[in-house]
Write a structure and sequence with these properties.
- By secondary structure, this protein is an all-alpha fold.
- It folds into 2 domains: 84 residues, no CATH class; 77 residues.
- The chain is 59% helix and 0% strand.
- It is globular.
- It starts with a helix and ends with a helix.
């Protein structure tokens, strides 16, 4: 999946404005201007589109973890930037950011009409050397992000109705 798509979908799911997005990046000690952010949020067929690097997405997701869960006091050293970020890493960071358990992840996928078994899901979080490790495909990540949109937007709609 294109990193820019992940960024746009997370932004939409959480209903984040530009300032909040810039704050999330800043939580990982990455300063981004509003103009640069808007270029990252454009679709790849629009003029001025700028591709989001793995390092930038990793910093955003690390910032999202801090944004949602607070700063870790026991981690004085900065996180290493993962330039080899893949779908498994993205899924792992989203799981941490939202404090999702296995059931939460499966429920989120189910919201997007995507069925996955517990062993299939856990295979994405195993160490790469493990014999049951599996690469997370674009379809799984895309459906998980769609489920996040439904999950968070549905919650917003419920609160507005109350």
């Amino acid at each position: 999946m294109i990193n820019n798509d992940v960024l746009r979908r997370v932004r939409y799911a959480l209903n984040l404005n530009d300032a909040a997005m810039m704050d999330i990046f800043a939580l990982s000690d990455y300063e981004i201007s509003r103009e640069d952010l808007l270029k990252l949020l454009k679709k790849d067929n629009e003029p001025d589109f700028v591709s989001l690097t793995n390092s930038q997405l990793s910093l955003f997701l690390d910032g999202l973890i801090t944004y949602n869960r607070g700063k870790r006091e026991d981690s004085p050293t900065p996180q290493k930037i993962n330039s080899e970020l893949d779908n498994n890493g993205i899924l792992r960071k989203l799981r941490i950011a939202f404090e999702f358990k296995e059931e939460d992840m499966l429920h989120t996928l189910k919201l997007a009409d995507f069925e996955l078994s517990k062993p299939e899901l856990s295979s994405f979080f195993r160490h790469e050397a493990h014999k049951h490790h599996r690469k997370c495909g674009d379809q799984v990540l895309r459906n998980f992000l769609q489920g996040l949109i439904i999950h968070f937007r549905q919650s917003d709609m419920q609160q507005e109705m109350d």
